[in-house]
Specification:
Length: 468
Amino acid sequence: MKRPRSASLLIALVTGLAGCTVAGQAHESDAEPVVVGYQSKTINTVTAGTLLRAQGYFETRLEELGRHTGKKYAVTWQDYDTGAPITAQMMAGKIDIGSMGDYPLLINGARGQQSAGTRTKLVATTGYNLRGALNTVVVAPDSPVRTLADLKGKVVSASSGSAGHGLLVQALRRSGLDPEKDVRVENQQPPVGASALQSGNVAALSQFVAWPGLLVHQGNAEVLYDGGELGVPTLHGTVVREQYAADHRDVVKAFLRAQIDANRFLWSRPLDAASIVAQQTGLPPEVVYLYNGANGIATFDPTIKAPLRAALEQDVPFLKSIGVLQQIDLGAFVDDSLIREVYGTGYDADAAGTANKAALTGTDPVRRRPVADPALAGELWVGDRTRAAADPTCLLRAVKAARAAGQQVRAAYVPDAGTGTRWFADKSTWVRDGAAFRPFAGRAAAQRYVAAHAGATVVPYAEAVQAS
């Protein structure tokens, strides 16, 4: 079968990003080595990986440490496609600090607890979403599949044991399907699954950030099920080898300080941060900003919050059910003592809060009022700047005005009317309900709204813009 040109372009993009890339520097013989494993294109780990590395925050913190200890430090960065090889290298004592998603974190902790010498600890959070919107089920744009129930008897691509797989299983159960009997899950890595979706070899793809956003942005997929509908938190975090942390506590603290530096940069300059990550990964900046931008799908915060601890507990039964996890002592694995120490007196207050500090602010140019409500606020990206919109209708008007002025709209973002998940405005399904316009990331959610609201109708995006 001839591969679609779009699939070839996608594979070309990910080939340069997949696998392991070892990068470092010419290390002096007396320098103390530290090896960091990260996933450059799993962009919800950027504050412990791509962004942190690009800005040199860890090296700067180690230089400060060296002035006190008299030591020199040499950092080696190892870039992987998924969390599994990072865990394998940590078990072998070859990676000291790593970052990965929630399910891989639990597998990491469980494997580490099999012997005293391999134990690991989750010491900080990177990016999270309290509703689970970092994972999404997508289908081809011309797919006859309109609801999860339509997947009965079909093949779906997912990475076994990943958060995307977990979303699929839980969502199918809620829709009345048996994920083991009614659907055949093909265990595939994200780039393989993306190609399979485009070639028609699978009916749907259930994956984690940034794959759904990338495929939708390219026009190669549309949302079938927004993970935000599940209402189950998903997170990524920083993990260290317990023995390394005991022997090199000051180095791990330096890393966490650097992670806080990266968080502060992303909070204050989200557009610049997204541009840096895009440059480093080859991902479109519009896709990175969807997740990591102001009011992005990912909330970045290094504190380990109670809802995230609870989410890990809820994840354990699923991982046991598919045979990738036997047992884990979460009390021993999750340890916020180091991040608490370096964070300072504000830790408890910030750990209790869940507001996105990369907040979308400004004054809506249509209504001339401050943009405040993240459940309504949208954002328009024109040229090298973005501007906020108070609500979806205002965003449509801003798009219309920009086009009338001959300006090229790079991206427009709007929160889903039901889940609040930020999504591309031009890829959303729009509903007109009286004078109001309501966007939905997926077509099924929009149809459910229309069925429950007399007079509401689905309208094309272009029509919504024109009628705003």
